[in-house]
Amino acid sequence: MTEKGNMYEKMNIQWFPGHMTKAQRMIEENLKMVDAVCELLDARIPRSSRNPDIDRLAGDKPRLIILNRTDLADPEITAGWKKFYEGQGFAVLETDAKSGRGVNGFAPAVRRLLADKLRDYESKGQVGRTLRVMILGIPNVGKSTFINKVAGRKAAIAGDRPGVTRGKQWINIDSGLDLLDTPGILWPRFDSQEVGEMLAITNAIKADVLDKETLGANFMLRLRDMYPKAIEERYKFTPDPDMNGFELLEQAAKKRGFLISRGEYDIERMANTLLGEYHEGKLGRLSLEVPNV
Ligand code: G4P
Fold first, then answer.
1. Which residue of 95, 145, 148, 187 sits with most ligand 1 atoms within 8 Å of its CB, as the best mutation to test the pocket?
2. Pocket of ligand 1 (CB under 6 A)
3. Of 28, 140, 141, 197, which residue is 20 to 30 A from 43 by alpha carbon distance?
4. Tens digits of per-residue pLDDT, 166-212?
5. Pick the CATH number of 19-181 from 3.40.50.300, 1.10.760.10, 1.10.10.10, 3.30.160.250
6. Strands 63-68 and 91-94
């Protein structure tokens, strides 16, 4: 591959540290009221959709990681991530909160995670004491969808409790579990261009604030490296290792017939189409990050 064919374009991505400070405070304030911390990640980009500050904020609370959006992720890579986080001592559950697949495993996973605590409660005569779990995740990762699916029709808002910041809510689910919904929006840490791109490609942050063409071009390069077959199948050409991302986009635009004028193709439209089709899962189940082995 030539240098040109392997060149990612630079993008300008901003982030807002003020939001993080507020979230940290809210998490810290609410932590003492829960038995465990559950973190939702996008299974396609577990690394980029995970805020590393959680490790510090959650202290020594037992932890559960939910790999969500598994319907859009590469199943083998998701299994790899599950193993990876289990190796780090987390309980891990794979879910597709949209269809509800996997969410039934949530309550049993929490009970397994807190088995010692449950035994402790029982030995003190507190049989059937409700377990409380804080749900965290970056915006748009699927927290509301997940909570609604877990709670189902039996969902009941437990109402105000002392010490809980207004607007936050406890959700009682029938199996002796209370969920604390979003004590502070956890902003992603897009402290590198790569993380920012991953978040924009997967719609965690609005791609509108970024240059869509550049985002699409860089995404094409990632696809060429990780899933060239997906390009072949969807856009009907074999990606050339010497082309840059814009040239690959142009190639796809040609195949789609996105012509602006004679010989000039609409790359911006192609970038939008590519990102939209990935979002809808039309390119297949494609993960963008693999665990370190
Ligand atoms: P949040 O509370 O963490 O901010 O996220 P929320 O539940 O609102 O979910 C954001 C979007 O992601 C919703 O789509 C939701 O349907 C979708 N979603 C959540 N979990 C899954 C999943 O496991 N698989 C898939 N494919 N989608 C999931 P939306 O608002 O309708 O927008 P769109 O993203 O579907 O366009």
1. 145
2. 68-69, 71-72, 96-98, 137, 139-145, 203
3. 28
4. 456 888 886 688 999 876 666 666 677 888 899 999 988 876 656 89
5. 3.40.50.300
6. parallel
